[in-house]
Amino acid sequence: MSLDTQHPTPSSSPSWFCLRTQPKHEHIAAAHLKKEPDIEVYLPRIRFKRSTRQGPVWFTEALFPNYLFARFDLAACLRKVHHARGVRGVVHFGTHWPKIPDAVIEELRATVGADHVHVLQEALQPGDTVVISGGAFHDLRAVVTRPMPGRTRVAVLLEFLGRQTAVELPRESLVLDSASRKSIL
Question: In this structure, which of 45, 82, 103, 107 has its CB flanked by the most CB atoms within 10 Å?
Fold first, then answer.
C-alpha cells in the first residue's frame, strides 16, 4: 500500500482507529505511538497462566493479537502513525477508513480495566477440567472434585494407568484447561 495513492477522507477532530501491528509487537507499537502528543493509544491486554514443564507461568498478551487502537486526526497524523515502529498500518477498506465509536472503546476500558491489563482469575469449581503443570503428572488432564480448605490444595480425579484416581495437588500446579480470551468478552 502506498500512502501517496491512498487519500484518507479529511477529518477535523480526532477519532479512534484500529491499527494492525507486526506479530507480537503490539506493545512496541503502543510505546512508540504514546510518545506522540497528538495520539492517544489503547492496547487492551490479558494476563493468564499457561502450563509449562517448569509449572504454571503467567503470560501477558494483547487481547486482540496484532491490533491496537489509537485516537488521532487521520488527515494530520496518518503518515506518522503508519511509519511508527511496530505498526503495519491503519485498518482500512479501499478508501474507507472506519472509525471506532467512542462508546466501544469505553466499554472495552470498563471490561478490561483502567490499567489496560485484565487478569484472568482461575477460581476452580467442582467439575472444571484442569491441566496439571510440572512434576510427574505434567500435561495430564483432570477434573476438580473439590477445592480444599485454605485454597492451597485441590482434590482432582485423573485417569492414570487405565483407571480413575483421586489425588490432592497444590493449587499452583493446576491451570484451567480453557483459559482463553473468550472468557472476558
Answer: 45
